[in-house]
Design a protein that fits this description.
The chain has about 350 residues and is α/β, with parallel strands linked by helices. About 40% of the residues lie in helices and about 25% in strands.
């Protein structure tokens, strides 16, 4: 086989690719200068979504779309880093699921900062210590992360975009399975593996940790202790994997919000989701059908609601906030009209953000 002519062609293409990548980053740097001069956000979720859709349409193979997206994720990460040094906060020490979600969205070229609690994620961005934070809000098995929803009530931060991360849990320990007497992890992770734990370590105490990666750190130095986390954490902290794929549901996925001090971009041609926080206040107590009345402005306009969830207001008994995910952008005429109707009888209608539905 004469491989050299083919390798020579590949070398030539590599030269062109490197030159074109650098030219692309030079143009991105120019855009960054214009953004800074106008006070515009560096990261624009709608633009990112448009780039991904465009390159997918251009792709004729044999490269798979997922691989192409991963390449462009790093290209855009490098471009963002040139525009402005960016810091993204996430829950937990390094190698947590939230860290993995953050890197999936922002790539390897930006700066990352781990924090201890969900509330700290909001505080870090509010204080300007981070530009964005990646917040776990919902799991396909265990439902919403209540602490995250509660933080949105008091915070003025906006949802910039979302990330969906498939979660694969492992049991991680320096002890063999039969000697494990205690299992550490985040509350959601423990719940997602409840049936597996009952079958394989029925007598083990389940202990909540602030994050999955923190659980690995604790279990690493305690005889008979294990942690539930991703294999990335096991590798990062040098602790053996005792069992893999221990989550009770095969399609275990966590939804994360990226939050920032301002929303980014404008309406994305019908490909957006808008999140709202609504309170019925005294309306709920005074009138029957008040919840139906809250939904009617959207139903009358054919606007789909993909989520509605209540949380106690903690102000008085039986008073609730409602979190809504609505199809469309805050700037869409029909969404704006529905919100205007909603405000006629709801004392609180708070826009949490509009962002691309793809994540």
């Amino acid at each position: 086989m004469d491989l050299e002519p083919i390798r020579a062609q590949i070398d030539g293409l590599d030269k062109q690719i490197v030159e074109l990548l650098n030219r692309r980053l030079e143009l991105a740097a120019e855009i960054g200068k214009l953004k800074r001069s106008k006070g515009a956000p560096v990261y624009v979720a709608e633009r990112e979504d448009a780039v991904f859709r465009r390159i997918a349409a251009l792709n004729r193979g044999p490269i798979k779309e997922e691989a192409l997206r991963a390449i462009y994720r790093e290209v855009m990460s490098a471009a963002i880093a040139l525009e402005k040094p960016l810091v993204v906060a996430y829950l937990g020490p390094e190698a947590s699921n939230a860290h993995a979600a953050a890197m999936r969205k922002f790539g390897a070229s930006v700066g990352y900062q781990g924090v201890a609690t969900v509330a700290d994620l909001f505080t870090t961005v509010e204080k300007g210590e981070a530009d964005y934070a990646v917040v776990p809000v919902e799991n396909s098995t265990e439902g919403s992360v209540r602490e995250a929803l509660d933080c949105f009530v008091a915070s003025d931060l906006k949802i910039v975009t979302q990330v969906h991360l498939e979660i694969s849990h492992a049991l991680i320990s320096r002890s063999p399975l039969e000697r494990i007497t205690k299992v550490y992890s985040k509350d959601q992770a423990l719940a997602q593996c409840r049936a597996w734990l009952q079958r394989h370590v029925p007598g083990a105490a389940l202990v909540e940790a602030s994050s999955t990666s923190r659980a690995v750190q604790i279990a690493a130095g305690e005889a008979g202790a294990a942690a539930i986390a991703g294999e990335l954490a096991a590798e990062h902290y040098g602790v053996p994997v005792v069992a893999r794929q221990i989550q009770d549901k095969a399609d275990n996925t966590t939804r994360f919000f990226v939050i920032g001090r301002q929303s980014s971009g404008s309406a994305g041609a019908g490909r957006d989701t808008t999140s709202l926080l609504v309170s019925l206040g005294d309306e709920a107590a005074a009138h029957s059908g008040s919840l139906l009345g809250m939904l009617r402005p959207f139903a009358d306009r054919g606007i789909n609601l993909s989520k509605i969830e209540s949380r106690p207001s903690k102000q008085r008994p039986w008073d609730y906030y409602f979190f809504l995910d609505v199809a469309g952008h805050w700037e869409d005429a029909n969404v704006a009209a529905a919100v205007a109707d909603l405000r006629k009888f709801c004392p609180l209608v708070k826009w949490l953000g509009s962002y691309p539905s793809a994540g």
